[in-house]
Amino acid sequence: MISDQLETLLKLHATLSPPLISLLNPPASEAAIKAAENELQIDFPSELKELLLFANGQPYLSEELSPFIPGFRFADTGWRGRASYGWLLSIEDIVSWVQHKRDLYPTYLESTDETFEITGPVQFHDRFIDFTASENSDNLLLDLNPASGGHVGQVVMMNTQPCHLAVLAPSLGVFLDMLIDGFRTGRFLPFGEEEGTPAWWDGGWED
By the number of CB atoms within 10 A of the CB, which of 63, 92, 164, 166 ranks highest? Predict the structure, then answer.
Protein backbone atom coordinates (compact mmCIF):
# COMPACT_ATOMS: atom_id res chain seq x y z
CA MET A 1 0.00 0.00 0.00
CA ILE A 2 1.22 3.49 -0.87
CA SER A 3 0.12 4.75 2.56
CA ASP A 4 2.32 2.16 4.30
CA GLN A 5 5.30 3.17 2.16
CA LEU A 6 4.78 6.85 2.95
CA GLU A 7 4.54 6.09 6.67
CA THR A 8 7.77 4.11 6.44
CA LEU A 9 9.56 6.95 4.66
CA LEU A 10 8.42 9.48 7.27
CA LYS A 11 9.83 7.23 10.01
CA LEU A 12 13.11 6.79 8.12
CA HIS A 13 13.40 10.56 7.58
CA ALA A 14 13.20 11.01 11.35
CA THR A 15 16.13 8.62 11.96
CA LEU A 16 18.64 10.67 9.95
CA SER A 17 21.14 12.95 11.61
CA PRO A 18 20.02 15.66 11.27
CA PRO A 19 16.49 14.40 10.59
CA LEU A 20 14.46 15.37 7.54
CA ILE A 21 11.42 17.34 8.68
CA SER A 22 9.06 16.51 5.80
CA LEU A 23 5.65 17.44 7.16
CA LEU A 24 2.75 16.45 4.90
CA ASN A 25 -0.62 18.14 4.43
CA PRO A 26 -3.87 16.49 5.62
CA PRO A 27 -5.48 13.99 3.21
CA ALA A 28 -7.38 15.12 0.15
CA SER A 29 -11.01 14.14 -0.27
CA GLU A 30 -12.27 11.76 -2.92
CA ALA A 31 -14.51 14.57 -4.17
CA ALA A 32 -11.50 16.86 -4.67
CA ILE A 33 -9.65 14.15 -6.57
CA LYS A 34 -12.66 13.53 -8.82
CA ALA A 35 -13.01 17.26 -9.48
CA ALA A 36 -9.35 17.46 -10.53
CA GLU A 37 -9.77 14.48 -12.84
CA ASN A 38 -12.78 16.12 -14.44
CA GLU A 39 -10.97 19.42 -14.86
CA LEU A 40 -7.98 17.76 -16.53
CA GLN A 41 -10.13 15.16 -18.34
CA ILE A 42 -7.92 12.28 -17.23
CA ASP A 43 -8.13 9.42 -14.74
CA PHE A 44 -5.49 9.52 -12.04
CA PRO A 45 -3.56 6.25 -11.56
CA SER A 46 -4.76 4.38 -8.47
CA GLU A 47 -1.40 4.84 -6.74
CA LEU A 48 -1.60 8.62 -7.11
CA LYS A 49 -5.09 8.57 -5.62
CA GLU A 50 -3.75 6.55 -2.68
CA LEU A 51 -0.98 9.10 -2.18
CA LEU A 52 -3.41 12.03 -2.22
CA LEU A 53 -5.82 10.27 0.15
CA PHE A 54 -2.87 9.91 2.55
CA ALA A 55 -1.56 13.47 2.12
CA ASN A 56 -2.57 16.32 -0.14
CA GLY A 57 1.02 17.25 -0.92
CA GLN A 58 3.20 19.21 1.47
CA PRO A 59 4.12 22.83 2.21
CA TYR A 60 6.26 23.90 -0.74
CA LEU A 61 9.64 25.63 -0.36
CA SER A 62 9.29 26.07 3.39
CA GLU A 63 12.55 27.02 5.09
CA GLU A 64 11.59 24.97 8.16
CA LEU A 65 10.63 21.79 6.28
CA SER A 66 12.45 19.35 4.05
CA PRO A 67 11.31 18.06 0.65
CA PHE A 68 9.85 14.56 0.81
CA ILE A 69 11.73 13.18 -2.21
CA PRO A 70 15.54 13.17 -1.95
CA GLY A 71 17.82 14.21 -4.75
CA PHE A 72 19.54 11.24 -6.37
CA ARG A 73 21.71 10.07 -9.23
CA PHE A 74 19.94 7.62 -11.54
CA ALA A 75 22.64 7.26 -14.23
CA ASP A 76 26.36 7.85 -14.41
CA THR A 77 26.10 10.67 -16.96
CA GLY A 78 27.04 13.75 -14.92
CA TRP A 79 24.34 16.27 -14.10
CA ARG A 80 22.08 14.85 -16.81
CA GLY A 81 21.88 11.70 -14.72
CA ARG A 82 20.64 13.41 -11.56
CA ALA A 83 17.22 14.42 -10.28
CA SER A 84 16.61 17.25 -7.83
CA TYR A 85 14.96 16.86 -4.45
CA GLY A 86 11.20 17.35 -4.68
CA TRP A 87 8.16 18.47 -2.74
CA LEU A 88 4.94 16.49 -3.13
CA LEU A 89 2.27 18.51 -4.93
CA SER A 90 -1.26 19.12 -3.69
CA ILE A 91 -4.24 18.45 -5.96
CA GLU A 92 -4.50 22.15 -6.72
CA ASP A 93 -0.83 22.31 -7.71
CA ILE A 94 -1.09 19.12 -9.77
CA VAL A 95 -3.86 20.70 -11.83
CA SER A 96 -1.84 23.90 -12.25
CA TRP A 97 1.37 22.13 -13.27
CA VAL A 98 -0.36 19.77 -15.71
CA GLN A 99 -2.19 22.65 -17.37
CA HIS A 100 1.06 24.60 -17.61
CA LYS A 101 2.81 21.65 -19.28
CA ARG A 102 -0.06 21.32 -21.75
CA ASP A 103 0.21 25.01 -22.63
CA LEU A 104 3.94 24.61 -23.32
CA TYR A 105 3.59 21.38 -25.30
CA PRO A 106 2.95 23.02 -28.73
CA THR A 107 5.94 25.31 -28.20
CA TYR A 108 8.28 22.38 -27.67
CA LEU A 109 6.85 20.56 -30.69
CA GLU A 110 7.43 23.58 -32.93
CA SER A 111 10.93 24.39 -31.69
CA THR A 112 13.87 22.74 -33.42
CA ASP A 113 16.12 23.65 -30.46
CA GLU A 114 14.16 21.75 -27.80
CA THR A 115 14.70 18.07 -28.61
CA PHE A 116 14.39 15.87 -25.52
CA GLU A 117 17.14 13.43 -24.66
CA ILE A 118 15.47 10.11 -23.81
CA THR A 119 16.47 7.58 -21.15
CA GLY A 120 14.24 4.50 -21.04
CA PRO A 121 10.87 3.70 -22.66
CA VAL A 122 9.39 7.22 -22.63
CA GLN A 123 8.26 9.72 -25.25
CA PHE A 124 7.45 13.42 -25.17
CA HIS A 125 3.68 14.08 -25.04
CA ASP A 126 1.04 16.00 -23.08
CA ARG A 127 -0.28 13.10 -20.97
CA PHE A 128 1.99 13.37 -17.95
CA ILE A 129 0.80 14.07 -14.39
CA ASP A 130 3.24 16.08 -12.27
CA PHE A 131 3.40 14.92 -8.65
CA THR A 132 6.52 16.74 -7.38
CA ALA A 133 8.09 20.16 -7.79
CA SER A 134 11.66 21.32 -7.21
CA GLU A 135 13.58 24.57 -7.10
CA ASN A 136 15.29 23.55 -10.34
CA SER A 137 14.17 22.80 -13.88
CA ASP A 138 13.23 19.17 -13.26
CA ASN A 139 10.38 17.40 -11.52
CA LEU A 140 8.78 13.96 -11.35
CA LEU A 141 5.71 12.86 -13.28
CA LEU A 142 3.51 9.83 -13.83
CA ASP A 143 3.36 8.76 -17.46
CA LEU A 144 -0.06 7.97 -18.97
CA ASN A 145 1.27 7.39 -22.50
CA PRO A 146 4.53 5.42 -22.26
CA ALA A 147 6.65 4.39 -25.20
CA SER A 148 6.83 0.75 -26.26
CA GLY A 149 8.17 -1.33 -23.38
CA GLY A 150 7.08 1.19 -20.76
CA HIS A 151 4.29 1.04 -18.18
CA VAL A 152 1.27 3.26 -17.70
CA GLY A 153 1.89 5.12 -14.44
CA GLN A 154 5.68 4.82 -14.64
CA VAL A 155 7.71 7.47 -12.81
CA VAL A 156 9.52 9.83 -15.17
CA MET A 157 11.87 12.73 -14.55
CA MET A 158 11.34 15.69 -16.89
CA ASN A 159 14.07 18.32 -17.11
CA THR A 160 13.63 21.34 -19.36
CA GLN A 161 17.13 22.86 -18.92
CA PRO A 162 18.50 20.84 -20.66
CA CYS A 163 15.58 18.87 -22.08
CA HIS A 164 15.66 15.31 -20.79
CA LEU A 165 13.08 12.59 -20.10
CA ALA A 166 14.16 9.60 -18.02
CA VAL A 167 12.21 6.62 -16.69
CA LEU A 168 13.09 6.05 -13.03
CA ALA A 169 10.71 3.24 -12.04
CA PRO A 170 7.82 1.26 -13.59
CA SER A 171 5.36 2.52 -10.97
CA LEU A 172 5.04 4.88 -8.02
CA GLY A 173 5.05 1.95 -5.61
CA VAL A 174 8.32 0.61 -6.98
CA PHE A 175 9.81 4.10 -6.85
CA LEU A 176 8.90 4.50 -3.18
CA ASP A 177 10.37 1.07 -2.42
CA MET A 178 13.62 2.22 -4.02
CA LEU A 179 13.67 5.26 -1.74
CA ILE A 180 12.94 3.11 1.32
CA ASP A 181 15.78 0.75 0.40
CA GLY A 182 18.11 3.71 -0.13
CA PHE A 183 17.43 5.15 3.32
CA ARG A 184 17.65 1.77 5.05
CA THR A 185 21.00 0.91 3.49
CA GLY A 186 22.59 4.30 4.09
CA ARG A 187 22.87 5.31 0.45
CA PHE A 188 21.61 8.82 1.15
CA LEU A 189 23.64 11.62 2.69
CA PRO A 190 22.15 13.70 5.52
CA PHE A 191 20.44 16.93 4.51
CA GLY A 192 22.82 19.78 3.75
CA GLU A 193 25.97 17.75 3.02
CA GLU A 194 25.66 17.98 -0.77
CA GLU A 195 25.03 21.59 -1.71
CA GLY A 196 21.75 21.72 0.19
CA THR A 197 20.37 18.51 -1.33
CA PRO A 198 19.03 15.90 1.12
CA ALA A 199 20.68 12.96 -0.57
CA TRP A 200 22.26 11.44 -3.63
CA TRP A 201 21.37 7.98 -4.79
CA ASP A 202 24.72 6.20 -4.74
CA GLY A 203 24.05 3.81 -7.58
CA GLY A 204 22.31 3.46 -10.90
CA TRP A 205 18.70 2.66 -11.64
CA GLU A 206 19.51 1.67 -15.19
CA ASP A 207 18.59 -1.81 -16.39
Answer: 166
